[in-house]
Design goal:
Keywords: Membrane, Transmembrane, Transmembrane helix, Transport. It is found in: Membrane. Its main location: membrane. By secondary structure, the chain is mainly α. It has a single domain (about 1-180, about 190-405), classed as MFS general substrate transporter like domains (Growth Hormone, Chain: A, Up-down Bundle), CATH 1.20.1250. It has helices at about 1-30, 35, 45-60, 60-70, 70-90, 95-110, 115-120, 125-155, 165-180, 195-205, 205-220, 225-235, 235-255, 260-280, 280-295, 300-310, 315-325, 330-335, 345-380, 385-395. The longest helix is centred in the last third of the chain and has 35 residues, at about 345-380. The chain is globular.
Amino acid sequence: MKLDLIVLPLLAFNFMLCGIDKTNIGNAATTSNFAKDAHLKINDISNAVSLLSVTFITLQPLSTIIGRRISVKYWIKFMILAWGAICMAHAGINNRQTLIALRLLLGAAEAGFVPSVFFYLSTWYPKNHLGFRLGLCAGMYSIAGAFSGLIAYGVFQIYSEKYKNWQLFLIVLTQAEREHSLKRMDIEVIKNFEKLVTVVFNILATLPVSAFGTFLPLIVKGMGYSGIKANLMSVSPFVVGAFGLFMFVYSSDHFHERSLHTVTSMALALIGLIVMYTSSNPHLRYGFTHVCLADAFSAGPLIVGWLVNNTPLLGPRSLIIGINGYSNIAGVIAEQLFKPQYAPSYGYPLKVTMILVSVGMLGFLGMRATYMYENYWRAKQIAGWDEEQRRAEDVGETGRRGDQRWNFVSTY
């Protein structure tokens, strides 16, 4: 109860702030003056967002390991303070080099936050209660998109002789952050085919979130809505996404099932993408952004919960959560797909995203079949075992441990 009332809300709140730091550049980009004031060219913003992913992705496993070495709770606090200061410095951007440097530093500061929090929670909650808690935290990313759009809409109405409105926007968000944010590694996990393939397919599952999380205001603007109004119009899809996430992760925990929930969330995203790609009606396209994001945010926490459920030992668990951070490569793909030259319809990026999401769905169905067969095979092997053989397997006397034990039942 103490964890749910105190620790979990604090972590979830900081998830929201982390999400705002990533999406605020998209909101700032919808203003007509941001690129001009900061002396940026047409592709500089999307390139800078891609470069954030370079440090954000590559440093995740290392940052997670550092967190375990020096204590996760202290490492999380340090990362929050670091990224708050770096994000506030964005208000001083006046050229391409400064923008790129700050995005690289921001990616490095935020790199270990998500896997460190997920690992921290996995040490406290049983596996059948973990998915919903992970979803509560991850759901803050969708709420971050909504809040960022609302705050942007309000701040962009403010006139200041000293600061540009986009500078005020970046400063306001980081002031809120500063006020509120206060066993050995088992290399065998790297050889685990199922887990590594799950991480690869997670890249495809989180692609819609990566794309729309940053570029939804620009996509809405391309549908014919004004720059500032586009920020406001981007709020409701994120709100729908938050509600969908909470419903799906709760259902996943309740039914002790991960794969079909993940595939269903991707199917909803695919439906939204198809309509947005095939229709030229701006109102219909805007409506189906809600369908696209209705449950897209749940794939990430569901997959993390899936990996945690199938990795009982803490050492390998923290490592695979860190490796799962490479699923943020989806951000690099999205940022290179949704280029300004494809505006306003973004037809080509939407088509490629549809194809990749479809491949991911088939991949997860294949993983489900693999785990089902593995459980069936193991059940046959131990069917005739007596109590002594089962005890020996439990304590590792057979040389198998963790999820390699024949009496371990994999979640799917």
